[in-house]
């Protein structure tokens, strides 16, 4: 009877699931996911180095807002907003109205945003205030940095953030935090704030260039007309991927197997040369006529977290591509030890600013752990092309010869001694043979016996 009664009345959780299935709208889900571009990095990805994804001095956006170690910067955000309003001679209401127009888009940029920040959870005003404070703070930092030591606004000469002293000592940490995936601000926010400040629309290219100049002062350009970037990390990543991959001109030279490319030293021993590419784009990697050209990369204290956050963005954002991840995997393949780093440094491909060559090798070997690659990528084709050249018989013999006899001076001396003894033996044999036949030719020819 109990079983019959249980079968006649549906369980509560079954009713809830059926209700959600009926309410599910695939098109609405697609539309919601398309707006996401700022993510929290899951634990399965932070196990390599968790601190590489966490801001150290300033929180931007909701994910780390209120963290204990980042609270001291909140005071400076209020001062930045005050200075910006005074300099622009605008009211706070103008900024609020401009940002409020796009609040829904700004909320949609953050995946898994807590209800305390959402409109339906009563957090719309709190979210709006956070966006304005954080956005104005980032604008003021970028402008003071671009001033190149000149005073901007009415900041005190000893201001801990916005003075030349603060720009020199604090901005490097802020710039690092701006590249954290969990610490991003949508560039749409910056565009609206600049429009409210100036009273006129601002082009997307202007916003992109302003952000990129702050993040990559020494290099990095973006072509015009590519559209507004998603956030600072997206703009910085796209600046490293300008141009298109080089097409393989000789498909017949490509290996068909999936073998991993050899290390730089092994390739060099097989006759493959290295040289810096003409540009700094990670797309500018090509192999032609035994020459592997690669972009110059500067390895310093910021390289590890920069690559890790860009790789996390590629893994979490559908449609972002796999270019940075593929490059890091490619570098991990050709760097096995400090000797490979030393070789690439001598060719101008790696600029080592962190110390030992072993530290650089460990960096690339570590950050490429558990990477996921897209099949049939452009770098995969280059790798197969290099393998095809390496496996030609003469190149393999040359590599084996160098690896066996030229790795140590004693092995080289033994080879030289053996070649010398072999040469002396051949010369002695030739001399003996020539002497023998030379002596027979100088003797008189046999004469016929005289008649009786």
UniProtKB/TrEMBL annotation:
It comes from the Eukaryota. The chain crosses the membrane at residues 410-434. Keywords: Membrane, Transmembrane, Transmembrane helix. This is Uncharacterized protein. It comes from Triticum urartu.
């Amino acid at each position: 009877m109990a079983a019959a009664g249980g079968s006649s009345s549906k369980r509560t959780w079954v009713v809830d699931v059926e209700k959600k299935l009926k309410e599910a709208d695939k098109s609405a889900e697609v539309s919601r996911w398309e707006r996401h571009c700022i993510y929290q990095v899951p634990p399965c990805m932070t196990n390599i180095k968790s601190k590489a994804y966490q801001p150290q001095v300033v929180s931007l956006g909701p994910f780390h807002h209120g963290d204990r170690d980042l609270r001291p910067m909140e005071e400076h955000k209020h001062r930045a907003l005050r200075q910006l309003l005074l300099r622009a001679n605008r009211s706070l209401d103008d900024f609020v109205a401009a940002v409020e127009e796009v609040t829904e888009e700004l909320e949609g940029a953050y995946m898994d945003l807590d209800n305390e920040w959402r409109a339906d959870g009563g957090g719309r005003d709190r979210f709006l205030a956070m966006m304005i404070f954080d956005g104005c703070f980032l604008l003021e930092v970028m402008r003071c940095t671009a001033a190149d030591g000149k005073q901007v606004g009415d900041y005190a000469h000893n201001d801990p953030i916005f003075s030349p002293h603060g720009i020199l000592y604090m901005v490097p940490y802020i710039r690092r935090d701006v590249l954290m995936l969990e610490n991003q601000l949508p560039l749409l926010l910056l565009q609206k704030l600049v429009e409210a400040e100036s009273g006129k629309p601002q082009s997307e290219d202007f916003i992109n260039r302003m952000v990129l100049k702050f993040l990559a002062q020494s290099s990095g350009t973006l072509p015009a007309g590519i559209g507004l970037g998603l956030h600072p990390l997206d703009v910085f990543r796209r600046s490293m991927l300008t141009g298109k991959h080089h097409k393989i001109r000789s498909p017949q030279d490509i290996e068909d197997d999936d073998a991993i490319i050899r290390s730089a030293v092994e390739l060099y021993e097989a006759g493959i040369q290295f040289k810096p590419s003409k540009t700094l784009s990670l797309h500018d990697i090509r192999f032609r006529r035994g020459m592997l050209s690669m972009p110059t990369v500067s390895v310093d204290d910021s390289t590890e977290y920069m690559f890790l956050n860009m790789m996390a963005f590629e893994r979490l954002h559908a449609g972002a591509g796999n270019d940075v991840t593929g490059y890091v995997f490619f570098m991990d393949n050709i760097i096995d030890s400090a000797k490979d780093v030393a070789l690439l440094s001598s060719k101008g491909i790696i600029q080592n600013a962190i110390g030992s060559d072993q530290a650089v090798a460990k960096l690339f070997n570590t950050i490429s752990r558990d990477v996921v690659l897209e099949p049939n990528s452009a770098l995969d084709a280059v790798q197969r092309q290099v393998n095809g050249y390496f496996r030609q018989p003469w190149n393999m013999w040359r590599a084996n010869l160098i690896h066996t006899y030229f790795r140590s001076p004693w092995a080289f001396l033994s080879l030289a001694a053996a070649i010398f003894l072999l040469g002396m033996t051949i010369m002695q044999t030739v001399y003996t043979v020539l002497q023998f036949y030379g002596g027979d030719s100088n003797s008189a020819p046999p004469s016929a016996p005289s008649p009786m």
